[in-house]
Amino acid sequence: MDTFLLIGITGIGLGALYFLVACGLSLIYGLMGVLNFAHGAFLSVGAFAGYWFAVKLFPVTSNLSFALSILVGGIAGGLFALLVEQLVIKRLYNRHTDQALVTVGVSLVAAAMLGGWFGHDPLLLPTPTWWYNAIQIGDAFIPVDRLLYIGVSLLMLILFVVILRFTRIGLVIRAGVENRTIFLGMDQFRPELVGSNVKGKNPLKEVKVRRALY
Hints:
The N and C termini lie far apart (about 40 Å). The chain has seven helices and four strands, in the order H-H-H-H-E-E-E-H-H-H-E. The protein is globular. The protein has a two-stranded antiparallel sheet with strand order 1-4. It is mainly alpha-helical. The protein has one domain.
């Protein structure tokens, strides 16, 4: 039973990480109709930005440096996603083949540049000691990071539901998913800005930084 509990929570934690990636990808495809193969590049830029910030500015790891590095990584990934959307993807709406080719190219260029700058060996974001702790449930020891992944994923899910169902920007996003012509007369940049930033901002995905392989 304890083994089942450990494996179950560990698996759910891994699934929570996949959810953090997939929620932004599914939202941006539903809203903008873009076949985006550069999604991993946005996460990688955010991950390496958070790593660089933590290593260069905080020689001693603390809770503050850890939180700030995740925040900086999220902002950097979101800004990079917005930049790609405005400079590249915006010109390719309703051209799915071109979208696929261009976003694959963006991911390859980003992977090459990040690999050239940071190298190709796995890097770990400096984390506080509590990150490696475990909580005992019965005779099973559950890693704290898995529980944190699950908690953040649930929080993101609740935020998505609240924003999409109970706010004006959510109404605009859902209307755009159903029919983009409904956007006529509305400010399209704001909901697309939300979507682009969701692609780049996924907390805790910056904790483990590895070479981007796309």
